Structure formats: structure tokens, C-alpha cells
Amino acid sequence: MNPKDHQILRIALPAIVTNLTIPLLGLVDTAIVGHMGDAAYIGAIAVGSMIFSLVYWVFGFLRMGTSGMTAQARGRRDMKEVMRLLMRSLLGSMVIALTVIVFQYPLREMMLWLIAPTADVRSLSVTYFNIVVWGAPAVLGLYSLGGWFIGMQNSRTPMLISIMQNVVNILASLSLVYGLGMKVEGVALGTVIAQYAGLFAAVGLWWRYYRRLSLGKVLLVKEKFVDWLVFFRVNRDIFLRTLFLVAVNLYFTSAGARQGAVILAVNTLLMQLYLFFSYFMDGFAYAGEAWGGRYWGAQDMVAFREVVRRLFVWGTAMVLLFTLVYVAGGMPFMQLLTDESNVVEASRDYVWWAYLIPIVGVAPFIWDGIFIGITATRDMLVSSCIAAMVFFIGVTGLMGQMGNHGLWLSMILYLATRGIVQTYLYHEQILRKPKSR
Question: What is this structure's pTM?
Fold first, then answer.
């Protein structure tokens, strides 16, 4: 095996396992409330989970920005800067978390206004939100620590934390609901307990494996204002880029909803195929962050280019694998997810769009990882902005003639545009001006 393949898989495989465990947190909550005898409980968990998914997605820069800069600092063997980056990220995450808690009421009301659930679901969603919002420091703190671990070429620790969180969530939620007779409150409290258990585990594992980095001495080193400017610039670009991604995904969902319940259900189920592919490709993106950033920081361009090349070799293999799996199992998968015959029949007209997802999605996933690793965040922002414009122009011009096919074609063009623009920027901007970054 190519030595770079070994390095890539050492990061990618644990990261893939971590990603696959993430949906389990939501599935466990849904399964518990699904036996409470009222569909409103399921709706409340779905709405509450969606709110926090969107809010925390926007703050994903805490993980991505930290991983890329940490990987580069480690590549330069600047361990003091490695620790400074962790402290900056953790401080930023706590400030944001406290802001979320302080402004929880307007945040909650705005999100509920956007989602517009029915009255019974809304009431239960408020209860869920009011408890889970107190987990914000744990979630965002884990973003910072998780990004730092990835930057240190350590994806096993986030994997162990994620698995532990699922176990704690299951035990806590079951105990509170069935042991103490709680309902939505028990599920929400179980989620918060699991979140803080994950944070404490992350801090404990950091102490066990990294305390030799002399945290105390680092805290005494005077921070440079310019370093904070770089930190905020990188995270600002990722934040704005994420807003474009959120806008596209929200509009995709709302445009499907306006076509009726059946089309909304079809699009929602088909997007599960996109998410499943993303769980695997994110693992290779993390490898790009860790090793790409490290070799870029060490100014070892030969090793850096080899990592990029091998990542696309693995990406090509994933495209072939997932395309074959989706072509062979796309419809059986739809039938597994739902027994509504009208949804299954309607999906036959659209399932082939999902076959294209691996083909057009592989490049943007891999490039995102590489660009994060080398902190080429402005290029990520540019590509996302251009791709979002292509999506909204496509939706405007195609849906009137093609309906839901026009919506899916716009999504495919959006993914393809991201990959094409990033490929151009990599070859024409990044490789030609490596020292300017």
C-alpha cells in the first residue's frame, strides 16, 4: 500500500465511523418518543433537532478553522502555536455558546416562525428547545476540541467520544423516560447529559495524551493581535461559506414542500442517499485537512501533492462503489425507509438523480478538506458563492418548465459548480502562489 494511503485511511476510517454514529443520536430520541402514543412528540423532536442542526451547522467553522490551522502549525513544529489555536477556538466557542443562551428566546421564536409547526408540536418543541439549548457550551466546545484533534492527525479520539455519547444518550434517555416517567423533557435532558459527557471525555482524553504540551506556559505567552485577526479571517470566510450552503439546502427543502407532501417526502428520502455518501467522503475530507495542512505547513509540496492525488484516487473508488450501490439498491432503499406506496411510486421518477450525487459530489467534498487544511478559506467562500448563484438561477429558470426535476438538476449543477471552481482555483491560484498563503 502507498504510504500516503496508510496515512489517509488512518484518519478517514475512524472519521467515517464517527460520522455514521451521528444520526444515531437523533434516531434514538425519535425511537423513544415514537412509543409515547402521540405523533406530536415525534414532530417536536424532529423540529427541535432541525433547529439545533441548523444553528450548530452555521458555527461549524469552529471545527474546520481549528483543524486546518492546527495541522499547519504542527507541520511547522510550532507546538506553542498549536496550543494557542486550541485556546483561541475554545474561547470563541464559549463566547458564541453564551450568546446563544442569552438570546435563546428570539432565536427560538425566529426558528419556529421559519419552520411553522402546528400548535401542539410547537408547544412540545418549545419544551425541548428550552432544555437542549443549555448544551450549547458542550456542543461548541466539542467542535473546537474535535477540530484540534483532527489537526493533530488524531481521528480516533473523536470516534471514541461519539460512540460514548451515543451510549450515554441511550442510557440517560431511557432512564429518564421509562424510569422517572418523563416525556419530551426526559429525551431533551438525556441529550444534554450526553453532550456534556462528550465534552468531559474530550477534556479527559486531551489531558491524558497532550498535557505534555505545557498548557500553563502557553497561557502565559502574550497573544499577538495579528494572530487573532488571522483566526477571525479564516473563520469568517468559513462562516459565510456555510451560510451559502444553508441557504441552498433550506431552499431545496422549501421548494420541495411547495410541491406537496408526496414530493417533499420523496426529496427528503432521496437526500438520505446524499447524506450517506457525505458521511464517507467527509472522512477523506478530514484526511485532507490533517495531512494536507501538515505538509503545507511544513512546505513539503511533494508530499502535499501526493496526498491530494491519493485522495482523488480514493474518491474515484468511492464514486464507483456508491454509484453501483445506488443503481442496484436505490429503490429497495426507498421501500425500506417508507411503506407509503404513493411515495415509493413517485420516487421512481426521481431516484436516478441520486445516482449522479457521487459523481458530482466527490470533488467538492475532497477539495473542501484540502482547502480547510491549507486555510484557503477565501477560495472556499468564492466557490460556494458562485455555486449558490448557479443553484438559484437554475431553480428560477428550470422549475417552471421541469418541476421537481428542475429542482434536482439545479442541485446537481450546484455540486458540480463547486467542484469545478475549486479545481480551477487549486491549479490557477493555490499551486502558483503557495507562499502567499
Answer: 0.84
pLDDT digits (tens, 9 = 90+) for 53-75: 888 888 888 888 888 889 988 88
Distance from C-alpha of 419 to C-alpha of 87, rounded to nearest angstrom: 33
Could you tell me if 40 and 307 are in contact, meaning their C-beta atoms sit under 8 angstroms apart? no
Q: How many CA atoms lie within 13 A of 33 on its CB side?
A: 26
Phi, psi of 303 (to 5 degrees): -65, -35
Residue identified by cell 484526511 is: 287
Q: Give per-residue pLDDT as tens, 98-153.
A: 999 999 999 999 888 877 777 777 888 898 899 999 999 999 999 999 999 999 98
Return all residues near 176 (Cβ < 8 A) that are at least 6 apart.
Answer: 182, 185, 186, 187, 189, 190
